[in-house]
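Progress against Task 2.4 (sequence-to-structure conversion) is shown through the following example record, which the project officer requested during the mid-term review.
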Amino acid sequence: MSVHFLVELTVRDGNLEPFEQLAQQMVAGSQQEPGTLRYEWYFSADRKRCRLLETYIDADATLAHFSGPVVQQLVPKLVTLATVERFQVFGDPGPQMRSNLAPFQAEVFTASHAITR
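Structure tokens generated for the chain above:
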């Protein structure tokens, strides 16, 4: 079953341009990862708040993402430009990813009722 991430960020003052450039790099890197189905950035009208929606084919794909260059090299840069306000996970990321997500204080929601096609 697929796993979804919702990351809510606030861009620090004066960092919008480098933040957007880094987001583009993260999209390009995630596009190369097998098992990444969606990786989408959304901004509020004032461009101060941002939402990152990620969808992975399964728990193994989330592990590949977390061990890849987007998370290992680019996320450390991202957190210098923005504050992570909330990190939510929908679906079962598996025990290893639950451990990996702990430092991010990610809240995991497991599926109760769903239709998948």
